[in-house]
Specification:
- The protein is built from 15 helices and 13 strands.
- The strands form three sheets. A six-stranded parallel sheet has the order 3-2-1-4-5-6, with helices on both faces. It has a five-stranded parallel sheet with strand order 10-9-11-12-13, with helices on one face. The chain has a two-stranded parallel ribbon with strand order 7-8.
- β7, α6 and β8 form a beta-alpha-beta unit.
- α4 packs parallel to α5 and α7 packs across α10.
Length: 425
């Protein structure tokens, strides 16, 4: 019934997750990549990936890959992989809108015998509770009789060109034992690192959501230690290096926790936990602490300025970096905006510079107008917020050339040579 040789794939969503999937699968089976954004589709047809996850050469070599925004082009597919974002709303509750819309799209072309696989991060049970009912309702087909489902959580790390899709072990699952074998075999075609077949979709969903929850809690611990050590006048990074000489000490660093995964996924798990009557303490405490780090960095910078008798109101402050992580153009849920918003409350004039970011995106998502060049001897403070390679290459003299006398330099990422920064986490 489930034949790998006859697979015709449709990938729904061509972002950081969907595009690498489509490229890799197209090397093995006919693949159609679907995205609602016609601009994105047009760029990919011209072998341009603005996310920089796939090179021009990689796109050129994907000969069996067709890009489209036309749902009718998906009618010949018999396996659909949904790879759309799962954000949170302003109240930090799961926002299933992209997943619901994607499910409605697939339902319009779903046929008997088809398999729908979800990669989006959700809480345990969401695939069967949220997505499958939409597929049934809009297609008129019966789940696990006419069509089937699978779940294989994405593990893409944006900007990481060492750990790529084929080299990361893939967790797989299916709505029946036979479908689980099929889904596992399907991913086995492209994942050289191997697969791990979970016993159920709920287990696979839970495994994904705790991966980032664990990282979030661990980073929150290190952030709290940084707050303590700063009050004690101890260099946090030096402490971590010393502790790291023990073989089982985990190498986490303090910093801003944003992005589409670590800063979001724990809220999916806590939402489900509260729904079943359990109020999570540690996870939410870690989230609160991490979400407050931007304001802390801003206030520490202001304190350093005041110590040097720099009038903060109307001062000029430069923020280096706007993305949620280094060497990546992804702006989703960046917590650098927390620094900007807090400094604005002091009446400071903020310039933001990030060579990785599209100006239109910065304005559209956050109302930030970036500068295109770095002027000399202008700034009363510089905050290095993101460790882009362009910034880590700055010499101390180049950095100081941007500043007025006695200006404050704050190094969020611990990337500057020792003695250059006036403050850091």
């Amino acid at each position: 019934m489930f034949n790998l040789d006859s697979v015709r794939l449709g990938i729904i969503g061509l972002g950081y997750v969907g595009l690498p999937l489509a490229v890799e699968f197209s090397k093995k089976r006919p693949t159609i990549g679907f995205d609602l954004k016609t601009r994105r589709v047009d760029e990919l047809k011209r072998h341009i990936d603005v996310t920089r996850e796939v090179t021009t050469e990689g796109l050129e070599q994907a000969g069996n890959l067709q890009y489209t925004s036309d749902i009718n082009d998906l009618r010949g597919c018999n396996v659909f992989i949904v790879a759309v974002p799962t954000p949170i709303d302003r109240n930090k509750r799961p926002d299933f809108t992209p997943l619901i819309k994607a499910s409605e799209t697939v339902a319009k072309v779903l046929k008997k015998g088809d398999v729908v696989i979800y990669e989006s991060t959700v809480y345990p049970g969401a695939t069967e509770e949220v997505c499958v009912p939409i597929l049934e309702r809009d297609s008129g087909l019966v789940f696990n009789q006419d069509f089937f489902a699978g779940y294989s959580p994405e593990r893409i790390n944006p900007g990481d060109h060492q750990h790529r899709l084929p080299t990361i072990v893939k967790v797989t699952s299916g709505s029946t034992p036979e479908v689980a074998d099929f889904v596992d075999g399907l991913y086995g075609l492209v994942i050289t690192a191997g697969t791990f077949k979970a016993s159920s979709m709920r287990v696979a969903e839970a495994a994904k959501v705790i991966e980032n929850t664990q990282r979030d809690v661990n980073i929150a611990l290190i952030n709290e230690l940084a707050l303590i050590f700063n009050r004690l006048g101890i260099d946090t990074l030096e402490v971590l290096k010393a502790a790291g000489t023990k073989w089982n000490f985990l190498p986490f660093r303090p910093g801003l926790v944003g992005g589409h995964c670590i800063g979001v996924d724990p809220y999916y798990l806590t939402h489900k936990a509260q729904e079943v009557g359990y109020h999570p303490e540690m996870i939410l405490a870690g989230r609160r602490l991490n979400d407050d780090m931007g304001r802390y960095i801003a206030s520490e910078t202001v304190k350093l300025m005041l110590k040097r008798r720099i009038h903060v109101a109307d001062s000029h402050i430069l923020i280096l970096g706007l993305t949620f992580k280094e060497n990546c153009p992804d702006l989703r849920n960046t917590r650098v905006v927390d620094i900007i918003e807090e400094l604005n409350t002091f009446g400071a004039k903020i310039d933001v510079y990030d060579p990785w970011v599209d100006q239109e995106d910065a304005t559209r998502y956050y109302g930030v107008s970036m500068i295109e060049q770095l002027p000399h001897q202008r700034y009363d403070a510089v905050i290095l917020a993101v460790g882009h390679q362009e910034f880590t290459r700055f010499s101390p003299d180049e950095l100081r050339a941007l500043c007025r006398p006695d200006a404050v330099i704050y190094d969020v990422k611990h990337v500057l040579p020792q003695g250059v920064a006036d403050g850091s986490l």
